Structures are given as C-alpha cells and as structure tokens.
C-alpha cells in the first residue's frame, strides 16, 4: 500500500482578495497540498478563476506546494497546456466532460502534470474503473460540484470503498462538505486525500483541524494494512 494521508484545503473558501497569503497560511498550518477549483460557468453554474491566477499563486508560494487543479469545465482539453505552463501539479478533470478520457490522460501526462479523474454524485464508480490504472488519483465528489458549503453526501462512501477494494494503491480523494464531522466515514471508506474548505479555512485554528483530519485518515490506513 503506497498511499498516505494528505489534507488539501480548498482555497476557494478563503478570502479571495488575499489568495496568495491565504495559500501560504494554509501551507504553514500543515496542509499537504492545495486544492484549486476552476469553474467555467458551463459545466457548473459558477465562475471562479483560470490559469493567470494559478501563475500568480505559483510565483507567490514558490515551487514546493502541490497544486491539485479541480477542473470543473466543459472543455478540459482546452486548458491542459495553459495550466501546465502556469505551474499546476495535477490536472483533475471530470469524466462527464469528455468522450475520450484516454487521449486527455495522455495529453496531461505529456505536459508534465499528474492526472486526476473526478466523478459527480450521479456518475457510477464503474464508469471510472476502466481508467483507474491510468490515473494518479480518483476524485469522488461528495456534493454536487459548483458551490461551496453544501452538506456531505454520505451515500457516496460505497463508491470510495469499491475503489479502495479494487485498486488498493490508488490515491482516492473526497471533496464536498468534508470536515471533522464527516472525516471518520471518509477514512473508513478508504479515502486518503481529503479536500476540506470551510471546515479548515473558516476555523479559528486551521492547524488543529488539518492535524485532526490527517490523524483520522492515517489511523484508518494503518488499520487497513493490519487487517489485510
């Protein structure tokens, strides 16, 4: 088992007028990576930011922080090269947005980024399965993408469990409504990459929340390795 517990604050929950310093603050509070939500107003109703913002953030935070780009866009092919040039580390696209995932995966790899593949709540995990050995990370959305602050959908956990059983070493990320109240369910199901927005960034003590989330996930990983 080669996966580990990683916590990625969703920076869209932060004060967007000082995004650079918020990213630095999250890394200083112990974040393992940063989760950046790109929305185009088509695939999801909201519009957020694009590659120029990512380029500015990369200059601000330096080369070390891992940028996980969650591309909630209807034409993910269009932004691979611009995001790579801007300093993105991983390009996570939605399975629902392309008819040729294989081609897109190849393109992302060739541009020097890691590959993430996301599914919305209405998409079955079996649809993702054929690509699981070709990607670095699977993202199981635990809310409908497009808005922050939604309630965690516990009924998505069987997808995570199924993926963990079928692909034991795959990085599995959950995103949406995840915080101290729901982390145990995510960890027990087998998620190891945890996106948390308001629960971390809105907290008076983000460092403690990040540490708590990581501890719960790490303990579940350890338990799973002992149970095998």
Automatic annotation (TrEMBL):
A biological process from GO: carbohydrate metabolic process
Transmembrane stretches, start-end: none
Reactions catalysed, as given in the entry: D-ribulose 5-phosphate = D-xylulose 5-phosphate
One Pfam family matching this protein: Ribul_P_3_epim
Cofactor needs: Zn(2+); Mn(2+); Co(2+); Fe(2+)
EC number: 5.1.3.1
Origin: domain of life: Eukaryota
Top EC group: isomerase
UniProt similarity note: Belongs to the ribulose-phosphate 3-epimerase family.
Quaternary structure note: Homodimer.
HAMAP family from the UniProt entry: RPE (MF_02227)
Name recorded for this polypeptide: Ribulose-phosphate 3-epimerase
Organism: Solea senegalensis (Senegalese sole)
């Amino acid at each position: 088992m080669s996966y580990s517990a990683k916590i990625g604050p969703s920076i869209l929950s932060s004060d967007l007028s000082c995004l650079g310093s918020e990213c630095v603050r999250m890394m200083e509070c112990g974040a393992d990576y940063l989760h950046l939500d790109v929305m185009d107003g088509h695939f999801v109703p909201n519009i957020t930011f694009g590659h120029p913002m990512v380029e500015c953030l990369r200059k601000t935070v330096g080369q070390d922080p891992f940028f996980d780009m969650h591309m909630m866009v209807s034409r993910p092919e269009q932004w691979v090269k611009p995001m790579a040039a801007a300093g993105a580390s991983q390009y996570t696209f939605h399975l629902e947005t392309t008819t040729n995932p294989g081609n897109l995966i190849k393109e992302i790899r060739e541009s020097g980024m890691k590959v993430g593949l996301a599914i919305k709540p209405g998409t079955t995990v079996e649809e993702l399965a054929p690509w699981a050995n070709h990607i670095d990370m699977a993202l199981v959305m635990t809310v409908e993408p497009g808005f922050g602050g939604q309630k965690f959908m516990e009924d998505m956990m069987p997808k995570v469990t199924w993926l963990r059983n079928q692909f034991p070493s795959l990085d599995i990320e959950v995103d949406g409504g995840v915080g101290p109240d729901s982390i145990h369910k995510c960890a027990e199901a087998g998620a190891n990459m945890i996106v948390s927005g308001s629960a971390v960034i809105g907290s008076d003590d983000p460092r403690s929340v990040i540490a708590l989330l990581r501890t719960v996930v790490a303990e579940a990983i350890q338990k799973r390795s002992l149970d095998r």
